[in-house]
Write a sequence for this structure.
């Protein structure tokens, strides 16, 4: 993930400085916009191309480079302490839910795969979806709050970074397309300013698991009908909450838990089932640590 963030930042750094080099008026507009919020610096290209400048951009909670950023006058240390405490609580709760609910359920899924030689019944899928839907939503919300609110505001406070619009009210989205525009503003700004990569989530999910699968891409493409449907509803029934209900149903009951199940099944097929197929010797269950993680936090493997 950090490599992807650095890559996006470097692209923005190169593109922005190319614009400043070829269009001097661009940097004047940028400096004029942040003059009242910045500390009065008068920077112009190529004076901004320094190690200090690029290091600050690498650490700043933004993906889009500009020649000057708005700065707060000083660091508010009580705010730093508050955000650090909130971040710690969010991470602790997310780990607790993973250990108490997600890990035992995924371990149970693996045992069913072993018992049924990789076959999964539709009834079992729905059973696991119901067990994981609410918990996965809570974990996602805790992760969102911990990263986009606590961590990014903490980094902004320590760096005196003034532009702190990291997300908008995506939870009130009446269209699915509005959710994608509002939930991650740094990425949205980067995509608007530079180039659009619709498959980047596939890389972020598949690479850590050492397998390339199309589930995330298909899920994103599957939202196109939902985007069209919610746009039609919003035009015909302005102010209606129907689109928001459709969004939350697709988000809670289908998206997050289904991704967990599909990638767990694929991971088992690739890393465990292949070993059983190639050898008649019983293979110890070393590839999955879900049960041990759960027992560490006091969870029972049998649900």
């Amino acid at each position: 993930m950090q490599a992807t963030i650095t890559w996006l930042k470097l692209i923005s750094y190169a593109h922005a400085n190319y614009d400043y080099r070829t269009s001097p008026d661009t940097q004047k507009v940028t400096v004029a916009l942040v003059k009242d919020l910045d500390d009065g610096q008068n920077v112009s290209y190529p004076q901004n191309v320094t190690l200090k400048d690029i290091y600050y951009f690498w650490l700043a909670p933004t993906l889009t480079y500009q020649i000057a950023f708005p700065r707060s006058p000083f660091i508010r240390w009580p705010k730093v302490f508050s955000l650090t405490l909130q971040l710690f609580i969010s991470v602790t709760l997310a780990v607790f839910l993973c250990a108490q609910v997600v890990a035992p359920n995924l371990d149970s899924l693996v045992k069913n795969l072993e018992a049924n030689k990789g076959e999964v019944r539709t009834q079992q899928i729905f059973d696991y979806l119901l067990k994981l839907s609410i918990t996965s939503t809570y974990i996602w919300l805790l992760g969102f709050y911990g990263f986009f609110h606590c961590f990014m505001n903490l980094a902004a406070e320590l760096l005196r970074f003034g532009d702190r619009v990291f997300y908008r009210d995506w939870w009130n989205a009446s269209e699915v397309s509005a959710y994608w525009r509002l939930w991650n503003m740094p990425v949205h700004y980067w995509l608007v300013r530079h180039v659009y990569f619709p498959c980047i989530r596939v890389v972020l999910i598949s690479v850590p698991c050492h397998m390339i699968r199309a589930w995330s891409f298909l899920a994103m493409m599957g939202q196109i009908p939902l985007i069209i449907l919610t746009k039609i509803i919003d035009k015909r029934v302005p102010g209606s909450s129907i689109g928001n209900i459709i969004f939350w149903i697709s988000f809670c009951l289908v998206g997050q838990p289904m991704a967990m199940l599909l990638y767990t099944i694929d991971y088992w097929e690739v890393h465990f089932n292949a070993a059983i197929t190639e050898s008649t010797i019983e293979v110890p269950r070393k590839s999955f640590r879900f049960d041990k993680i759960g027992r560490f936090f006091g969870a029972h493997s049998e649900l």
Notes: The CA atoms of residues 282 and 302 lie 22 Å apart. Residues 197-205, 280-299 have pLDDT under 50 and may be disordered.
